[in-house]
Each structure stands twice: as structure tokens, then as C-alpha cells.
Amino acid sequence: MPELADQKDRIQALLESAEKVVPNDEYYAALSPEQLDLKREQFSLNAIELNKIAEKKKEKMDEFKEQMKPLEVVYDALLAEITMGKEKREGRLFILRDDENSIMATYDENGDWVSDRRQTPEEKTGGRPSIFMNKKAS
Fold first, then answer.
1. Mean pLDDT of all residues in 20-48
2. Please, what is the Cα angle at 89 between 85 and 94, to 5 degrees?
3. Could you count the other beta carbons within 10 Å of the beta carbon of residue 107?
4. I want to staple 114 with a disulfide (CB 3.0 to 4.6 A). Which of 34, 48, 92, 106 is the partner?
5. Could you give the CA distance from residue 136 to residue 113 in angstroms, rounded to a whole number?
6. Cα(47)–Cα(26) distance, rounded to whole angstroms?
7. Taking the model in full, what pTM does it have?
8. Exposure string (b/e) for 45-61, b if CB count within 10 Å is 16 or more?
9. How far apart are CA 17 and CA 14, in angstroms?
């Protein structure tokens, strides 16, 4: 109990000689070597646990990325189609000459217009006339 009295006396002495008393504030106190060793041990245990959780997080993120891949492929395709206003298709195409307008028109198997482009100098020298000459499907 004398230690407690010494502490009360110390606090009383500090109160009497202090210019200002801050009721409750944070500060850093020096650690003893034993306390420092304990903190290092706690730090190591914390780091190990943190690493385990980080590994689990990485595994889950990899799983999520795998789940997202097929959706991203569809997303990219739909975004491109919406942006361009066109849909990617596969099929037989027919390129027909339109000498009157100096273009080469491309049609699909249904006879629907797909695209056209200007004739190259080699294509302007003649060739087979087109059955779709000057006609574009609606």
C-alpha cells in the first residue's frame, strides 16, 4: 500500500507544479525490453494470421475472376454490338460489282446488304455485272 500512497503523492505534486493539466490525451510511453519482446511476438502472430487471410482472399479473388471471364466475353461482345449498331455473324458473303457507282457491295446469303467499299483500280477494269446492281436490300 505504500506504493499507492507514493503514487498519490506524485500525482498531487505534479498537479501542484503543472502549468496545465490535460485530462485525457494520447501519448507514447517507452516499453521495457520484456514488453518489447512481447509486442514483437504479438506482431509475428498477427503477421502470420494476416498472411493466411490474404492467401484465402487471393484464392477467392481467383475464383471470382474465373466466374467473371465468360460474362466479360459476353459483355465485350454486346458492348461492341451496341456501340456499332451491328452484330457479328458468320456465313457466306457475295461481293458484287457496281461499276456505275464504282463500289463493291457485299451481300449475305439472304441477299441483305452487308457493306460496300470503293473499287480498287484493278477492280475498275471490268468484270462480271451484278444481279443486284444499284439495289440495296431494305
1. 93
2. 105
3. 22
4. 106
5. 6
6. 25
7. 0.48
8. eeeeeeeeeeeeeeeee
9. 5
